[in-house]
Design brief:
The structure holds 2 protein chains of 2 kinds.
Chain A: H1 2-30, H2 38-56, H3 59-83, H4 88-111, E1 126-128, H5 138-143, E2 144-146, H6 147-165, H7 167-177, H8 179-184, H9 189-216, H10 227-237, H11 242-264, H12 268-288
Antiparallel strand pairs in A: 1-2
Chain B: H1 11-16, H2 18-52, H3 57-69, H4 72-97, H5 105-122, H6 128-157, H7 161-181, H8 215-232, H9 234-244, H10 246-251, H11 256-283, H12 294-304, H13 312-333, H14 339-359
Classes of the chains: A mainly alpha, B mainly alpha.
Chain lengths: 307, 364
C-alpha cells in the first residue's frame, strides 16, 4: 500500500514538467503551430531558473525568469514562423541546437565548470496538507507535493475550460483549423499565433525550470534529456485535449518512476523495456485512434493573407 | 536546374535572354550566396558571444582553424567526422525533398549500427571482401526498414512522421541499450558494450597517418548516386513532385504513397549505413551513446545546402570540420566545444531568414 502510494507520488512529480510543456504545446498546435524546439526551450528555462536561484536564492523568481526568457525565445520562433513563414520543423530543429549549445556554453562560463554541476540550489519545499495526506494510496500523491505540482494539477482543467468554453479558446481552435475563416471573421491570425507560441514557450520554460528547482536541485548539461520530445508525443497522445494531457503525462511519469525503482533493485532488462514502453504505447495508441484524428487541419501550415 | 541543361542552345543566345540571366542570379543567390552569408553571420554572432564571455576572438577562431588545418591528422579527423554526416544528410535530403519530415535519423543510425555489429560478431570468419559489404548492406536495410516503418505509418494510417520518427528514435536507442546489456553484451560482462569486432571486418584506413577510412569514399559515392536518383530518374521525379505539391502529383498520376514510403526507406537506409560504417570504421563495437547527435546534425547538413544530396558532401565536410576543430579549440583555447551547436543552429536560422528575403526581393 505504502509502496503504491509513494510510487504514485513520484509519478506525479515526474509528470509535472511534462504537463507544463505539453499544455503549452497543445495550445500552440491548436493554433496551427508545431514547435519541435520544446527541448531547447526547456533547457533555456532550466538554466535560467537555476542561475537566478543560485545567485538570488529565490526559487519563485527563478521560475518566473525562466518563463520570461523562454517566452522571448518563443517570440523569436513566432517571428520566424508566422511573420517570415519559415518552415516550423526547421526552425524547431535550430532552436534545439541553439538551446543545447547556449545553455551548455553559458553554464560553463557563468559557473566556471566543465560540464559537471556547479553546486546545489534550494528545492521547492513540500507543502503537506494535514489529514488529507494520510489518505491511503492517493494521499501522498495529491496532498504531499511542492507548489509547482499543485499548480500543474490546477492548470489542466483551467486550460481545458479556456480552450473549450471561452471565446479566446474558440478563436485559438478556429485559427488552427481555418485561419482564413478566422481572418474573415475579423480576428488577427498573426496575433493569435504569436500569443499561442509565446504562451507555449513560457510553459516549456516553467517545465524546464521545474527540473533544477524541484527535482534535481542543480543544473547539468542536457538535463532535459528528451522530455521536450516526450511532451510532443503527449500532445498527440492526448489528442490535442489539455485535460487528457494530465493522464498521458502521468503514464510517462509512472514509467519513469518505476524505472528508478527497478534500477535500484538492479533489474536491468526489465528497466530497458520499461524505458521504451511509453513510446511503443504512444505509437500503438496513435494507430488505434487514427480514425478519429483530432489534428488541427492547419497544423504547421503558414498563413498568407490574400489581398 | 539551369535552362542550359534543358535546351540545346548556344551560350551566347542564352546570355542575351533576360530570363536566363535572372535564373543564374537566382541559383547563385540561393545555392552560394545565402549559405556563405549564413556561415559568415553565424560565425559573427559566435565572435560576439566569445568576446562577451571574455575570449580573444582571434585566438579562439585561430585555434578552431588550427584544429581543422593544423596538421594532417586534424584534416583527417574532419573527414572522419563528416562521413556519417554526409550519409545522413544525403538521406535527409531525399526525404525532405519528398515532403517526408524524417526526424528519425538518429534511431535509424542506431538500427543500422546494431545490425552491422551483429553481422560482424556472428559471421566473424567471413573474409573481408564478403564480410564488410554484407555487414554494410544489412546495416543499410535495417535502417531502411526502421525508416520505412514511419513511412508506412504515414501513408497507411496518416500518422504524422515528425512524431512517429521521434518515438522510433527512443525505441531504437532503448533497444540498443537492451542489446548491449543483454544478449549482445561483451563476454566479460563488465561494461554495457559488445565485444570488439574482428580485424577482418574493420574498414581500412585511406592514409597511414590519419584515422579517415574508406567509409568516406562510400559516403561520397552514395551522395552521387542519390543525386542521380533524385534528378535523373522517374522515381526521383515522383519524389520531388510529391514534395512540391502532393495534390498536384496525385492528379498527375503519381503514386504519392509509394513515393513517400520509398523516400522514407532510402532515407533510413543511408542513416543505417552510416551507423554500420561508424562501428566497422571507427569504434569497433556497439555501445549506448554511439552517436553524439549525428541524426540531428544531419538535418542541419541537408538544410544548409537546400536539401541537395550532392552538396551535402560540402556541408557535411564543413560541419565535420566544425565538430573536429572545436574539440581542438576546447583543448588549446579552453573555449567550450558546445559553441559549435550554437553556430550550427544559427546557420540554419540565418539561411531560413535569407531565403525569405529571396522570395520577397523588394523586402515586402
Amino acid at each position: 500500500m505504502e509502496l503504491v502510494g509513494s510510487l504514485l507520488q513520484a509519478a506525479l512529480r515526474m509528470a509535472t514538467p511534462l504537463i507544463y510543456a505539453a499544455i503549452g504545446e497543445t495550445y500552440n498546435e491548436r493554433a496551427g503551430l508545431l514547435n519541435l524546439g520544446i527541448e531547447g526551450l526547456m533547457l533555456i528555462g532550466a538554466l535560467t531558473a537555476y542561475t537566478i536561484a543560485f545567485f538570488y536564492q529565490s526559487i519563485l523568481l527563478g521560475v518566473l525568469g525562466a518563463a520570461v526568457v523562454a517566452g522571448l525565445f518563443g517570440l523569436l520562433f513566432a517571428f520566424a514562423t508566422v511573420t517570415l513563414k519559415a518552415n516550423q520543423v526547421i526552425i524547431g530543429t535550430a532552436l534545439n541546437l541553439i538551446g543545447l549549445g547556449m545553455t551548455s556554453y553559458v553554464h560553463r562560463m557563468l559557473f566556471n565548470t566543465l560540464a559537471g554541476s556547479a553546486g546545489n540550489v534550494q528545492v521547492l519545499p513540500t507543502l503537506r496538507v494535514p489529514v488529507l495526506k494520510d489518505i491511503p494510496i492517493i494521499g501522498p500523491a495529491l496532498f504531499e507535493q511542492n507548489l509547482l505540482v499543485y499548480l500543474a494539477l490546477l492548470l489542466t482543467p483551467i486550460a481545458g475550460f479556456v480552450l473549450y468554453k471561452t471565446s479566446l479558446g474558440l478563436a485559438l481552435r478556429a485559427v488552427g483549423e481555418h485561419p482564413k475563416a478566422t481572418a474573415t471573421a475579423g480576428l488577427s491570425v498573426t496575433r493569435l499565433r504569436y500569443g499561442a507560441m509565446v504562451f507555449a514557450a513560457m510553459m516549456a520554460g516553467i517545465g524546464g525550470a521545474y527540473l533544477p528547482v524541484a527535482h534535481a536541485n542543480t543544473f547539468v548539461e542536457n538535463m532535459v534529456a528528451g522530455r521536450g520530445f516526450i511532451a510532443l508525443a503527449i500532445v498527440v497522445f492526448s489528442r490535442w485535449n489539455p485535460v487528457n494531457v494530465l493522464w498521458a503525462s502521468l503514464l510517462f511519469g509512472f514509467t519513469f518512476a518505476l524505472q528508478f525503482r527497478l534500477q535500484i533493485v538492479n533489474l536491468r532488462v526489465a528497466y530497458q523495456f520499461l524505458q521504451i514502453l511509453p513510446y511503443v504505447v504512444t505509437l500503438l495508441a496513435m494507430v488505434v485512434l487514427r480514425g478519429q484524428t483530432a489534428q488541427p487541419k492547419a497544423l504547421a501550415v503558414p498563413y498568407t493573407e490574400q489581398v | 536546374m539551369l535552362k542550359i541543361l534543358k535546351i540545346g542552345t548556344s551560350w551566347q543566345n542564352l546570355w542575351q535572354s533576360e530570363e536566363f540571366r535572372s535564373d543564374v542570379r537566382h541559383e547563385l543567390w540561393r545555392n552560394i550566396v545565402v549559405p556563405v552569408l549564413a556561415i559568415i553571420f553565424a560565425l559573427g554572432v559566435g565572435a560576439l558571444i566569445l568576446s562577451a564571455t571574455g575570449y580573444n576572438v582571434v585566438k579562439a577562431y585561430g585555434a578552431l582553424w588550427q584544429g581543422v588545418f593544423g596538421s594532417k591528422v586534424n584534416v583527417g579527423e574532419a573527414f572522419l567526422r563528416s562521413t556519417p554526416l554526409i550519409l545522413i544528410g544525403t538521406g535527409i535530403a531525399l526525404a525532405f525533398r519528398c515532403g517526408f519530415w524524417n526526424i528519425g535519423a538518429e534511431g535509424q543510425f542506431y538500427a543500422g549500427a546494431a545490425a552491422g555489429t551483429y553481422v560482424a560478431l556472428t559471421f566473424a570468419n567471413l573474409p573481408p571482401w564478403a564480410g564488410i559489404p554484407i555487414a554494410l548492406l544489412v546495416g543499410f536495410f535495417t535502417g531502411a526498414i526502421w525508416g520505412a516503418l514511419a513511412g508506412l505509418l504515414k501513408v497507411k494510417f496518416c500518422l504524422n512522421e515528425v512524431v512517429t520518427t521521434i518515438m522510433l528514435n527512443y525505441i531504437a536507442i532503448g533497444l540498443v541499450g537492451y542489446l548491449v546489456t543483454g544478449p549482445m553484451q561483451e563476454a566479460m560482462r563488465e561494461n554495457p558494450q559488445t565485444d570488439e569486432i574482428v580485424r577482418s571486418f574493420v574498414i581500412g584506413r585511406i592514409f597511414p597517418t590519419s584515422r579517415v577510412h574508406y567509409g568516406f569514399i562510400i559516403a561520397v559515392v552514395v551522395a552521387i548516386i542519390a543525386t542521380i536518383v533524385l534528378f535523373r530518374t522517374p522515381l526521383g521525379y515522383s519524389m520531388r513532385a510529391v514534395g512540391y505539391n502532393p495534390d498536384a502529383a496525385k492528379h498527375a498520376g503519381i503514386n504519392v504513397a509509394s513515393s513517400m514510403a520509398t523516400a522514407a526507406f532510402l532515407s533510413g537506409g543511408t542513416a543505417g549505413l552510416a551507423g554500420a560504417i561508424e562501428v566497422l570504421g571507427v569504434t569497433g563495437r556497439l555501445f549506448e551513446n554511439l552517436s553524439p547527435g549525428y541524426g540531428f546534425e544531419g538535418i542541419a547538413v541537408s538544410l544548409l545546402v537546400n536539401n541537395h544530396p550532392l552538396a551535402t558532401i560540402v556541408s557535411g565536410l564543413l560541419f565535420g570540420a566544425l565538430g573536429a576543430g572545436s574539440q581542438v579549440m576546447q583543448l588549446n583555447a579552453k573555449v567550450p566545444a558546445v559553441l559549435t551547436f550554437i553556430i550550427q543552429g544559427l546557420i540554419i536560422a540565418f539561411i531560413i531568414s535569407f531565403r525569405y528575403l529571396d522570395k520577397n526581393p523588394s523586402g515586402k
